[in-house]
C-alpha cells in the first residue's frame, strides 16, 4: 500500500511510518502487550517493528508512568475499535504512511483532533486519494505549494485536503470541535520548520512568546551555543525531539526546548500570556536562500509596520518567502513587513531604528527587523585550504578545515546573492601598536588593528583574475564619554560596523565610504538595558563587514 493508503499498513517505496497523536484519548479494548519504563520514542519504535512478535497498529503512551500499551486494532474511523476520552497524561497514537522526504526526526508527525475544523484560514484546497496523501502534501507544501502548512484538515467522504497557514492556537475563536454533519479531522504539522530539507535554517527572535509544559524539555548548565545546537540536531541525548524553538536564560544557563512554536503575535489573547521564564526566544525558519546568519536573522514584532514607502512590494502567501527575498536583497533591505490579511510582503530600506517616527501600529501584520550577520554558503570551491589561508603572516583565517565543514565547502561573508561571484572571505588580525602622542586630552588609550579581506573570484573554474587584498585600519579611542571605534578603508566600500550579537540596537551602516565610526558609551546606573551595552570590565567583539560591490 503506497502513499494513498490509510493507517496500520506496511509502508512501501518512498513512504515511511509515522504516527498521529491524539491527546487524552485511548481505545476501549485492552492492550495485547504492555512495556513499562520506556520513553515515547522507544514505544513508537516497538510498535513500528512489531516487537516480540506483537502485531501493532496503534499504541497508547502514559507519560507519567512511562508505560506503553500495544494494540493490534485501530480506532475509528480507521478501525472498528471505539475511542474514548481519558484523564491524565495519556495519548493515543495511530500508524500512517507518508512520504519520507519531508518527515522530520520525530516519534509522531501530526497531532490529530477528531471531528474538528479551523474556519477561515485555508490557503490551498487539494483533492487527494486518501489521508496519507493529504498529510504528505502538507509536509511538502513549502516546496510544492509555495506556502507553509502548519495545519491541515481532511474530509474523508470527499477526499478534500485543506492546507492552513495558521493553527488552532493562533485563532482559538475560529477552531470548532465536535462537528456532527461530516466526517472531518484537523491535524497539526509537528514537522513545520523542524528540519530544513530544502533551504537554510534561520533563527527568528521575538519578545512575544509563551511556552507551555505540554511539549517542552529543560536542560540546565548549558551555554547558548550548546542550546542552539541541541535544537538544531533535534536530539536530547539519544532521544528524538522535534525542536521548533528554544528559550535561553543566560543568568541561569538554562535551555528550554519546545516542540511547539511559542510566538504569540497577532493573537487576541496574547496580552494575558506570561512567558514561562525570562530569557531570549529563538524560533526556526527554513528559508529558500543560500545565505546563513551567524546569530539571529530577524527580530519579529507583532502588529507593527513602517509608514515609509517600500522599495519593493509583492503578493505572497508565504512569510518565509518574504524574509528570504529581504535577505537576498542585501543591505538595501533593512526590514520586512508581512500583511496576513492581504497576503502581501513589503520590503523597506528604513527600520524602526533608523526612523522610529515611522514605526506605527498595524493590525494583522508582522514586522521583521533584519539583524543578520550574513554568511553566504558557497559551493564547488577548488582551491586548497593552504592556498585560501595564505593571506598574510599572523592573520587568522575564519574558514573551516575540511574535517570541520558541515555539508558546505566553505563559508564566505557577503550581503547579497550578487556577491556570490565575487565574495570576501573574512580574516582578522589584531596587533597592538605603540600609543600615539597626538591624542586629544580626554583620550585614555588607543589601539590599532589591521584587517584584511581577500576578494576571491568565485565564478566557474576561477576564470577571472583575483583582486588585490582590501585593507582597513581599525582604531579605538577610550574617551571620557565611552569608547569610539573607527575603521578606515583603503578604498570606498559599504557595510556596517556593530557589536557582535547586538546588531539590532548598536550598529552603524555606511555606503560607499572610506571611514566609519561607532561610539559605545559607558554604562549608566539609570539605564539597565542600553542600546550599546558597554561594560568597563568586559571586552567586546567588534565586527565589520563590507559589501565589496563598490570596490
TrEMBL record:
SMART domains: PAN_AP (SM00473). It comes from the Eukaryota. Residues 11-97, 104-191, 196-286, 293-372 form the Apple domain. Coiled coil: none annotated. This is PAN domain protein. The lineage of its organism: Eukaryota, Metazoa, Ecdysozoa, Nematoda, Chromadorea. Gene3D superfamilies: Hepatocyte Growth Factor (3.50.4.10). One of its GO terms (biological process) is anatomical structure morphogenesis.
Amino acid at each position: 500500500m503506497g502513499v494513498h493508503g490509510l493507517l496500520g499498513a506496511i509502508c512501501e517505496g518512498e513512504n515511511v511510518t509515522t504516527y498521529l497523536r491524539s491527546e487524552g484519548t485511548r481505545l476501549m479494548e485492552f492492550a495485547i502487550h504492555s512495556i513499562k519504563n520506556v520513553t515515547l520514542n522507544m514505544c513508537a519504535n516497538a510498535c513500528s517493528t512489531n516487537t516480540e512478535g506483537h502485531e501493532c497498529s496503534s499504541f497508547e503512551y502514559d507519560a507519567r508512568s512511562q508505560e506503553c500499551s500495544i494494540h493490534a486494532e485501530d480506532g475509528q474511523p480507521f478501525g472498528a475499535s471505539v475511542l474514548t476520552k481519558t484523564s491524565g497524561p495519556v495519548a493515543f497514537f495511530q500508524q500512517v504512511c507518508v512520504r519520507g522526504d519531508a518527515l522530520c526526526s520525530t516519534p509522531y508527525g501530526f497531532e490529530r483532533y477528531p471531528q474538528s475544523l479551523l474556519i477561515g484560514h485555508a490557503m490551498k484546497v487539494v483533492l487527494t486519494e486518501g489521508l496519507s496523501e493529504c498529510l504528505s502534501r502538507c509536509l511538502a507544501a513549502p516546496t510544492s505549494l509555495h506556502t507553509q502548512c502548519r495545519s491541515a484538515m481532511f474530509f474523508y467522504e470527499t477526499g478534500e485536503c485543506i492546507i492552513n497557514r495558521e493553527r488552532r492556537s493562533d485563532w482559538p475563536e475560529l477552531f470548532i470541535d465536535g462537528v456532527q454533519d461530516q466526517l472531518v479531522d484537523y491535524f497539526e504539522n509537528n514537522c513545520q520548520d523542524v528540519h530544513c530539507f530544502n533551504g537554510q535554517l534561520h533563527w527568528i527572535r521575538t519578545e512575544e512568546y509563551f511556552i507551555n509544559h505540554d511539549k517542552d524539555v529543560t536542560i540546565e548548565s548549558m551555554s547558548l551555543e550548546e542550546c542552539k545546537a541541541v535544537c538544531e540536531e533535534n536530539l536530547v541525548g539519544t532521544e528524538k525531539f522535534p525542536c521548533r524553538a528554544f528559550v535561553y536564560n543566560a543568568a541561569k544557563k538554562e535551555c528550554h526546548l519546545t516542540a511547539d512554536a511559542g510566538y504569540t503575535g497577532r493573537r487576541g489573547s496574547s496580552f494575558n500570556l506570561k512567558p514561562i521564564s525570562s530569557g531570549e526566544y529563538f524560533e526556526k525558519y527554513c528559508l529558500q536562500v543560500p545565505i546563513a546568519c551567524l546569530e539571529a536573522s530577524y527580530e519579529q514584532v507583532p502588529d507593527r509596520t513602517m509608514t515609509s514607502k517600500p522599495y519593493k512590494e509583492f503578493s505572497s502567501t508565504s512569510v518565509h518567502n518574504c524574509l528570504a527575498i529581504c535577505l537576498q536583497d542585501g543591505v538595501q533591505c533593512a526590514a520586512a513587513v508581512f500583511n496576513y490579511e492581504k497576503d502581501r510582503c513589503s520590503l523597506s530600506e528604513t527600520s524602526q531604528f533608523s526612523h522610529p517616527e515611522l514605526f506605527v501600529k498595524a493590525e494583522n501584520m508582522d514586522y521583521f527587523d533584519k539583524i543578520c550577520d550574513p554568511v553566504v554558503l558557497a559551493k564547488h570551491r577548488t582551491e586548497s585550504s593552504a592556498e585560501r589561508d595564505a593571506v598574510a603572516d599572523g592573520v587568522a583565517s575564519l574558514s573551516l578545515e575540511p574535517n570541520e565543514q558541515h555539508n558546505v565547502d566553505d563559508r564566505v561573508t557577503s550581503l547579497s546573492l550578487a556577491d556570490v561571484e565575487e565574495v570576501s572571505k573574512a580574516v582578522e588580525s589584531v596587533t597592538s601598536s605603540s600609543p600615539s602622542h597626538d591624542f586629544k586630552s580626554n583620550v585614555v588609550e588607543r589601539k590599532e588593528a589591521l584587517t584584511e579581506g581577500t576578494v576571491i573570484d568565485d565564478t566557474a573554474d576561477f576564470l577571472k583574475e583575483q583582486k588585490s587584498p582590501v585593507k582597513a585600519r581599525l582604531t579605538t579611542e577610550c574617551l571620557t564619554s565611552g569608547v569610539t571605534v573607527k575603521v578606515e578603508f583603503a578604498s570606498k566600500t559599504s557595510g556596517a560596523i556593530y557589536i557582535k550579537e547586538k546588531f539590532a540596537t548598536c550598529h552603524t551602516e555606511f555606503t560607499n565610504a572610506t571611514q566609519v565610526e561607532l561610539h559605545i558609551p559607558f554604562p549608566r546606573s539609570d539605564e539597565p538595558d542600553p542600546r550599546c551595552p558597554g561594560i568597563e570590565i568586559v571586552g567586546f567583539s567588534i565586527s565589520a563587514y563590507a559589501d565589496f560591490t563598490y570596490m
